[in-house]
Design goal:
Layout lengths: L1 H25 L4 E3 L4 E14 L5 H11 L4 E8 L2 H16 L4 E5 L12 E8 L3 E9 L12 E7 L6 E7 L8 H4 L3 H6 L5 E6 L10 H4 L4 E2 L8 E6 L2 E3 L4 E6 L3 E3 L3 E2 L9 H5 L7 E8 L4 E3 L1
Parallel strand pairs: 2-3, 8-9
Antiparallel strand pairs: 1-17, 2-16, 3-5, 4-5, 6-7, 7-8, 9-13, 10-13, 11-12, 14-16, 15-16
Length: about 300
């Protein structure tokens, strides 16, 4: 009798254990999403003066070394003719020799008042960090208001969940009233189908000018503040920096842009002439902070 009770007891315990195990197997797993995490990309904007056939190989190598650390690069003042196209191609060869995989897009010639005023723009980016969305374009709706209409592209960080637009622009020189062009840049916001917007370039106008008020009123913020970016022809009393012409302006919904820096590659008066072989402007940099794709863990 005792043996029979023992056998029954063992069978009951085994049944209960198997039932619990089966319930665990059949129960739906619970997906747990981690809290939001963020990453950033580094964006550089640079007016490379007369960027065309006048740039020799040594100068292109120096430019490539400056550009190499950055994920997205906007270049203004690419020569409109074949020399500008060739210079960008040679620059890409230099960049890709240094290890990263870069892609680029070059604008058509701007629809300018003269062949002399017409230029191209270029975007260069690291393909393992960013994806180009759609086809970049010159903003035709601004070609009557701007002698060199802006060039715009859409990008998405490969690890991110959002898209942003970047428009780069080279305004007319300070003596030709660039403020009459800048007041129309708010149309970029009005025409945008994305909420994360960046405008960068050489505006030949500082960020405190009243022409920027239409952008500020729509929530745009400047990245650089009271930071000269253009260079004097000659160093005077130890000063070689000139005007606050280059900047970033942004508005965003789920992205943000960090404080910017001016890359002072001149460093001292003795370096002015050598750097002016590359450009009469310094490069500027900002950082775009974005939310990365959430990670789902199943339990």
């Amino acid at each position: 009798m005792k043996n029979l009770l023992g056998i029954v007891f063992i069978l009951v315990i085994g049944f209960l254990l198997n039932t619990c195990a089966l319930r665990k197997v059949l129960a739906p797993s619970k997906a747990v999403t981690t809290t939001a995490t963020y990453d950033s990309i580094a964006i550089l904007s640079w007016n490379i003066q007369d960027f065309g056939q006048t740039k020799n190989q040594e100068e292109l190598s120096r430019i490539a070394r400056i550009l190499k650390p950055y994920d997205l690069i906007a270049i203004q003042e690419v020569v409109a003719g074949d020399g500008g196209v060739d210079a960008v191609n040679r620059l890409m060869n230099e960049l890709n020799k240094q290890g990263d995989d870069y892609l680029y897009v070059l604008s058509e010639k701007t629809n300018s008042s003269s062949a002399y005023a017409s230029e191209r723009y270029a975007f260069i980016w690291k393909s393992d960090n960013l994806k180009l969305m759609g086809t970049p374009k010159l903003l035709a709706y601004l070609d009557k208001e701007c002698d060199r209409e802006p060039f715009q592209a859409l990008f998405s960080p490969l690890r991110g969940i959002d898209t942003f637009s970047i428009s780069t622009f080279h305004a007319v020189s300070a003596g030709k009233k660039p403020e009459l062009e800048v007041v129309h840049l708010s149309e970029i916001i009005d025409s945008s189908q994305v909420k994360n917007i960046l405008i960068c370039g050489d505006f030949n106008l500082d960020e405190d000018h009243s022409a920027w008020s239409s952008l500020y009123e729509q929530g745009m913020k400047n990245v650089l503040d009271d930071q000269p970016t253009s260079l004097k022809r000659r160093c005077k009393n130890g000063v070689y920096l000139n005007h606050e012409f280059d900047n970033f302006f942004w508005t965003a919904e789920r992205m943000s842009f960090g404080k910017g820096v001016v890359l002072d590659e001149v460093k001292q008066c003795e370096g002015l002439d050598g750097f002016r072989d590359l450009s009469d402007h310094l490069p500027i940099v900002t950082w775009l902070k974005f939310e990365v794709h959430p990670i789902h863990l199943d339990f």
